[in-house]
Every structure is written in C-alpha cells, then in structure tokens.
Write a structure and sequence with these properties.
The structure is a single chain. This protein is an alpha/beta fold. It folds into two domains: 118 residues, Rossmann fold (3-Layer(aba) Sandwich); 96 residues, OB fold (Dihydrolipoamide Acetyltransferase, E2P) (Beta Barrel), CATH 2.40.50.1020. The chain contains seven helices and 17 strands. Strands 2-1-3-4-5 form a five-stranded parallel sheet, covered by helices on one side. The longest helix is centred in the first third of the chain and has 14 residues.
C-alpha cells in the first residue's frame, strides 16, 4: 500500500478524491489538508509516498509549495485550470489531473507513480524485490484486480498485452511479458517460449515439446528455451 495525502481546499474535490482513493484499494489516505502550509510539518515526521496537490490554494499555491520542499513525495497535481501544465512538469510531477476528472483518469495517473524508484503500472504493497510479491494488483481494462501470485498457472503474451491464466479465470493486462519476467521470482516463473511464462510449481508432466500444468493447461516449449528450462527444473 502507498501512503498518500490530499492538499485541497474545496470540500467537493476532497470528497471525490477520498472516494477514488477508497475505491482503488491500493492507497492509504493519511491526512487531508486545506492549505499547503499545514502540510510542511506533517511531511517532516511522516513517510508519504504520494500527494494529491491542488494548484490554487490559499496562502501559497501548489506550485510555490513544491519549490519549498526538498525530497518531495510523488505528486499528482489537480486543478480546474490547464494553464499550469507546462510549468508543473518542471517539478517532475507524476501527472496533472484537470477537474473534473473520472475514476478511470485517476487510475491512469496513480499507475504512473514510481514505487521504490522504479515506475510500475501494477499496484501492490511496496516490498523489497528480493522478497517478491505474494499478491499484486493488475490493471485490467479500467479495473484493478487483485491476484495471488501463487494462483497464476502461466502468463501468455498477446502482442503488447498479456493474459494471466488462473484456475477457472484469466485476466488481460496492459503489461508486456518481459515486465512479468522482471517482477516475478525467476526461480518460480520460467520463460519456456517467446510467448509463455509458466509457474514451475504448477507443472504436472513434460512430454515432448509440451508442458502439462495443473487445471489441464498445456503450454508449448520453444526450441531455444528448452535446454535452459530443463536445466532449471532439474
């Protein structure tokens, strides 16, 4: 989960952001502020991953506020005025939401937030890579779907997309296959074909150039991957 705060002086906008944060399920709202000056002391003592920052605020604008804080968390700017978009990107903000914005646009912005200095478009608890994830949230269309890693049978490439196959269901993800290779435990998930990544723990048998997985799933073995694959499982 990522810790976030809202800096917004308009109650209707606060309510929308709170609702979206609750609906997305991968953010924890730590506090809401009506002006940026209130936030300064809070940031000195609290570890925050993301700020939803309005540009037009009392006392000091959101842009001026960004100029005053070193090592700022990731920032998604919110405003009803498009005029500041160019200036805002001088501060390496994650995204710029123009009010009123939809939940789908909100999800797209949050998907850009870097986690531990690596930009990812899955939402999951922020863990050290060596520990690997036990569960993850994948962006499937306009939804964020929770998937238990150990439930995955295999992942199949479909051009720029991938399909994650689980018992009795599958999910379409906007991430390419190489993304999953980097994110998942290489001892658990093995590339066996240019288009397939399998969960080694789900293998029931290997016959010729085919792998038989649990749930009666069958995956081909690519000729260039076969020797390395057999060496790994042996």
């Amino acid at each position: 989960m990522m810790n976030c705060i809202i800096i917004e002086d308009q109650p209707p906008a606060q309510r929308i952001l709170k609702k979206y944060i609750e609906d997305i399920g991968t953010l924890t709202l730590k506090a809401t502020f009506t002006d940026a000056l209130q936030t300064m002391e809070f940031l000195k003592t609290q570890e925050i991953d993301l700020m939803f920052l309005d540009i037009h605020l009392p006392k000091i604008s959101g842009i001026d506020f960004l100029k005053t804080i070193p090592n700022a968390p990731a920032v998604i700017l919110t405003t009803a005025f498009p005029d500041y978009a160019l200036e805002s990107y001088e501060f390496s903000v994650v995204d710029y939401l123009l009010k009123p914005f939809s939940f789908q646009r909100f999800v797209k912005a949050v998907a850009k937030v870097p986690v531990k200095n690596k930009q990812v478009s899955i939402f999951s608890p922020s863990e050290e890579k060596a520990n690997f994830r036990k569960e993850l949230f994948i962006k499937s269309g306009y939804e964020l779907v929770k998937v238990l890693v150990d439930d995955i049978l295999y992942i199949k490439s479909e051009g720029d997309y991938t399909e994650l196959f689980l018992p009795e269901k599958k999910h379409l993800s906007s991430e390419p296959l190489r993304f999953w290779e980097e994110q998942l435990d290489k001892n658990q998930f093995i590339r066996v074909h240019k288009s397939y990544l399998i969960h080694a723990g789900k293998i029931e048998k290997i016959a010729g150039n085919q792998i038989y997985l649990k749930e009666k799933a069958i995956v081909p073995i690519g000729r260039t991957y076969k020797d390395e694959f057999l060496a790994k499982i042996n």
